[in-house]
Fold:
Amino acid sequence: MRDAAVGFQCPECVAEGKKSTRSGRTAYGGLRPTNASVTSGVLIGINVAVWLAILASGGSGSRLVSLLGLRPSGLCEIGNQYRLAPEALCTGSGGSWLPGVADGAWWQVVTSGFTHVTITHIAFNMLALWMIGPQLELVLGRVRFVALYLVSLLAGSAVVMWASGEYQLTLGASGAIYGLFGALLIVARRVGGDMRALWGLIAVNVLITFAVPNISWQGHLGGFVGGVVATCILVYAPRQHRTAYQAAGLVALTAVTVVAMLARTAQLS
Structure:
């Protein structure tokens, strides 16, 4: 990795960026950003704003955590106990309804990726985004980078829906961040770069995923796979009509992800 004005850049990403300097386009068809840190900065700002709102409204006990985090099925909280009950019965009994995706809280599949409670959680995720995001935006272009980020986030949510506990709450940007790890790997492979350092970085993060308690391996796995597939679509698209192929591929990938979540929702309902 090489020091840069913002974060760090892999040598392969620098080489790809140089190829597109004259044309004003990135190596894969996107408009070359004048400031590749803007998008990552905005994403970090959104995450920090949500985190501050959660802190201001009670931290881990904030109502925002239950509203924004991803829970496959809704749950009733009465006092300090959780019960399985319909929303009407729950609220009628003086309980607090904790909504889930299967009960109509569809926004959670997106908002959970911008929700954090502990400072260590948000700090590690945002540091990774600040280090990786700008160089990927420099290589892919702003629109494609945003698409990659959101597709990775949704893919992480889809695997959480299927593989985590039905009433388990999952939150954090880790799914999208792992998608960026996968994207960096594919870009390095595409240009024939030395991927040993990247594999080492991924291996360390996988170790952390399973060694540290309360980390969602489901979100990490889904985000990584989503990022790998999305980046393959972006960097291996034929040069002729590249944008059309890229758009169609990303739309198809998003559709598959959404259908998977709809199928799980139908099963839970």
About this structure: The longest helix spans residues 242-268. The two ends are 48 Å apart (CA to CA). Residues 2-57+109-268 form a domain with the Rhomboid-like fold fold (CATH 1.20.1540.10).
